[in-house]
Design goal:
The chain has 210 residues and is an alpha/beta fold. The protein has one domain (32-203): 3-Layer(aba) Sandwich (Rossmann fold), CATH 3.40.50. Helix content is 38%, strand content 23%. It is globular, with a radius of gyration of 17 Å. The protein binds S-adenosylmethionine. S-adenosylmethionine binds at residues 39-40, 42, 62-65, 68, 90-91, 110-113, 125, 187-190.
Length: 210
């Protein structure tokens, strides 16, 4: 049975997190900004290297585990990268609290938690509702880059894109004319994987990046 006090405490805590994130966004995202986003950045290996190679882009990595973000921030500080930010946040809450005029141009989701058991699939980030919300913040020509070493997650995610009203697949394994990735840097989980699968998606009915 629902405990009204605990529910109220939970709602208050979520509201405080939203407030914190909005303040955080305001510090790093000037009005009408387009940024490059990584979900589940871990210790920040990929995005630090990416931001170094793309100094003109604002890059933001988010992770739900605070000590991973602390290590990522140290990495960023050592590299003295003013265009790179790591934020301790759950991906959906981060998205929900973005300023209204902010969009992303590239979204990297690299080796997200696979949640292998069917009853846990609801925890996966690559779900139709999350992708619908992300599409609202995807700028013109935006791309989503997904990579996993868990074959069923790859197959399920491909299926989600195939029937999604907002996204279309631009690169899948074994298909001709695949779009290449703009940047490669091995992540920690990638270095441990015997093999992995990748796909690229873009918004439907929007022009491609040339
Ligand atoms: C399997 S690790 C992969 C880390 C890194 N991308 C790599 O390839 O080495 C998945 C990461 O996603 C983070 N994560 C899981 N769910 C998340 C969510 N909903 N929002 C943000 N980060 C999340 C975890 O804390 C973890 O650091």
């Amino acid at each position: 049975m629902e405990n009204p006090t605990r529910t109220a405490q939970f709602l208050a805590m979520m509201e405080e997190r939203r407030r914190d994130l909005r303040e955080r966004h305001a510090r790093v995202l000037p009005p009408k900004t387009t940024f490059t986003w990584e979900i589940g950045c871990g210790h920040g290996h990929f995005l630090t290297a990416y931001a170094q190679a793309h100094p003109q882009e604002i890059c933001i990595g988010v992770d739900i585990v605070s000590d991973r973000i602390e290590r990522a921030v140290k990495k960023r500080d050592r590299a003295k990268l003013a265009n790179l930010h790591f934020i301790h946040a759950e991906a959906r809450l981060f998205l929900e609290t973005l300023p209204p005029d902010t969009t992303f141009s590239r979204l990297f989701v690299l080796f997200p938690d696979p949640w292998p058991k069917a009853r846990h699939h609801k925890h996966r980030i690559m779900q139709p509702d999350f992708l619908a919300d992300a599409a609202k913040r995807a700028g013109e020509g935006a791309r989503l880059y997904f990579r996993t070493d868990f074959t069923p997650y790859y197959t399920d995610t491909k299926g989600v894109f195939e029937s999604h009203p907002d996204w279309t697949l631009l690169s899948v394994e074994g298909a001709p004319g695949n779009e290449t990735w703009p940047y490669e840097r091995e992540t920690v989980f990638q270095s441990r994987a015997a093999a992995y699968h990748s796909l690229v998606a873009g918004l439907k009915s929007r022009p491609a990046i040339v």
